[in-house]
From TrEMBL, chain A:
It comes from Mucilaginibacter pankratovii. It comes from the Bacteria. Belongs to the ABC transporter superfamily. This is ABC transporter ATP-binding protein. InterPro entries: AAA+_ATPase, ABC_transporter-like_ATP-bd, ABC_transporter-like_CS, P-loop_NTPase.
TrEMBL record, chain B:
This is ABC transporter permease. The keyword Transmembrane helix applies. The chain crosses the membrane at residues 21-41, 53-80, 110-136, 156-178, 185-203, 241-259. Keywords: Membrane, Transmembrane, Transmembrane helix. Pfam families: ABC2_membrane_4. It comes from the Bacteria.
């Protein structure tokens, strides 16, 4: 395990924000740390970086205890917490050069990172004038600068446009697949995590509700096939006659539990062959709220 | 130690383009330039003075300003400036998640603040000497070149430097813990006014109050005040200077323990 916590707890005053958390992050995984805003994600991440002192419990990173091996562990971690911390009066390159100096990293690496996050052209511009997406990319470049084994990223796609999100996702997948890095990434978007994570931990009100592989999660989250046709009632009856379970139906659309992509094609063909026009058919995920309900029920 | 040096270099790199750094250079330049202009345009007032008095009068333009309000205010500003860089950029969390000990990060930042005050005061010495000698070239009737005050001036500014350390350490800790501008600056200015008032009224315990130290340092700098002075003898290590250094050492260590235990927001 790259990260292992046992009974991790933290309180701000009398309010307990993290409750007996036991995380297991395997090597080479993209671990999606999922939860709504205020669930305790950032607090947990700050404890993993030794920024907050834990009330109870222990943290092991690379199988070493964090308190007693702080510097050795931190030298293998790159992190981005909340909004990126950037000196606004310095250029993007200067921000990276400053960090390179502190980490003892060669200056050549700075240009590599600028190219990687596509900021080479804006490298000389003051970082204070960057857009939110550019700041976020600079933050990711800062996190990657020391070529760390473990990346801890707190909502790194915040403020990025769809292209930026896709680029980050591909970058993270590449890092884990080709360079055997481990990525711990927090998000409040289930779909976002499902697209890239190999493992998932779900936190709500400071408690870990679920932890396991993405496959395990899918068993609980049960994606739906959403179908929009010119005649919803006829379509529903036709599907039922063909042994499909229709879970929800209204004037506009109906939904069927998702089993495979092939099944979606078959539904489409079946409806078309029986003279029903399909306007839309796609796979849909439960939102977090419904997922929490499903997890609570399955427990 | 490596972490400390890296952090110190980084402090310099970060501050190069800030008012905190340039203040250390521009403040002594402009104050000394002002003294130069006064002596250049009002040279008739000073022509009759013996060279030693000429130097003393010339140096006192800057010393008078620094000893009263300017040095405490500059010190307060430096302490604010080196910490504000992190508050403004929200970078405490990144500084403290670097593979560098908290001690190095904290120690280097404090050392850099000390360095800025030292730089500023050193430049006061250099500019005063340079501009004094420049005056004897521009206005040969001002006989600056016939007397040397370099050593005494260095001693006085070194004494001022030591006397500012108490204020610096207290302000540094306040600026580190409070992210806003108003609290450390406000408290600092009020205490400075109290200190200057106490020192100028000759309060007997003002040597124990850090914010009075720069002014007390100037009043205790002459070793022998009796009789007409033929030569100036500077007393650097007076009671107030020892208190200032001791206060800074204690506050620095206390600050370290606070930083060690502090959660980083």
């Amino acid at each position: 395990m790259v990260i292992r916590t046992e009974g991790l707890s933290f309180s701000f005053g009398s309010q307990q924000v993290v409750k007996s958390l036991s995380l297991q992050v395997p090597e080479g995984s993209i671990y999606g740390f999922l939860g709504p805003n205020g669930a305790g994600k950032t607090t947990t991440i700050k404890m993993l970086l030794n920024l907050l002192q834990t009330d109870e419990g222990s943290i092991f990173v690379f199988e070493k205890e964090l308190q007693t091996n702080r510097i050795a562990i931190l030298s293998e971690i790159g992190s981005l917490i909340e909004q990126p911390a950037i000196y606004a009066h310095m250029s993007g390159r200067e921000n990276l050069l400053n960090r390179a100096m502190l980490l003892g990293v060669k200056d050549a690496r700075v240009d590599e990172m600028l190219a990687l996050v596509k900021l080479t052209n804006a490298a000389g511009k003051k970082a204070g004038q960057y857009s939110l997406g550019m700041k976020q990319r600079l933050g990711i470049a800062l996190a990657l600068l020391s070529d760390p084994k473990l990346l801890i990223l707190d909502e790194p796609t915040n403020g990025l446009d769809p292209n930026g999100i896709i680029e980050i996702r591909e970058l993270l997948v590449r890092l884990t697949r080709d360079h055997n890095k481990t990525v711990f990434i927090s998000s409040h978007l289930l779909a976002e995590i499902e697209r890239m994570a190999t493992h998932v931990g779900i936190i709500n009100n400071g408690e870990l509700l679920f932890q396991g592989s993405v496959k395990d999660l899918e068993a609980i989250s049960q994606p739906q096939v959403y179908v929009e046709t010119d005649n919803t009632v006829d379509a529903a009856n036709l599907l039922k006659r063909n042994n499909y379970e229709v879970v929800d139906i209204n004037h506009e659309n109906l939904t069927v539990p998702f089993t495979s992509k092939k099944q979606m094609g078959e539904i489409n063909a079946l409806l078309n062959q029986n003279g029903i026009t399909v306007f839309a058919i796609n796979k849909q995920h439960k939102d977090l709220e419904n997922l929490f309900l499903a997890i609570t029920k399955s427990n | 130690m490596k972490g400390f040096i890296l952090s110190f270099r980084s402090e310099f790199y970060k501050s190069r383009k800030t008012a905190g750094f340039w203040g250390a250079i521009l403040l002594p330049f402009f104050v000394s330039l002002m003294a130069l202009l006064i002596f250049y345009f009002k040279s008739e007032k000073f022509i009759t003075m013996p060279a030693m008095m000429l130097w003393v009068q010339f140096a006192l333009v800057a010393l008078g300003l620094m000893g009263t309000l300017l040095l405490p205010m500059y010190t307060i500003f430096v302490a604010y400036s080196v910490n504000n860089v992190e508050h403004k950029a929200d970078t405490w969390k990144t500084l403290f998640s670097l593979p560098i000990s908290r001690w190095s990060v904290y120690g280097a930042k404090f050392a850099y603040a000390v360095f800025l005050v030292l730089l500023c005061l050193t430049l006061f010495v250099l500019f005063t000497i340079t501009f004094g000698n420049l005056l004897s070239v521009l206005k040969p009737e001002l006989k600056f070149n016939t007397y040397h005050l370099e050593w005494e001036l260095t001693q006085v500014y070194f004494k001022l430097f030591l006397s500012s350390l108490g204020i610096l350490s207290i302000q540094f800790l306040m600026s580190l813990l409070w992210s806003d501008f108003i609290k450390p600056m406000g408290v600092g200015f009020i205490l400075t006014i109290v200190g200057v008032t106490a020192a100028s009224k000759g309060w007997e315990y003002s040597y124990a109050f850090p914010y009075a130290h720069p002014m007390v340092a100037l009043t205790t700098m002459f070793k022998n005040k009796k009789g007409p002075a033929q030569d100036i003898v500077i007393d650097v290590f007076t009671k107030d200077v020892f208190v200032a250094v001791a206060v800074s050492a204690v506050v620095f260590v206390v600050g370290y323990f606070i930083v060690q235990r502090k959660s980083v927001k």
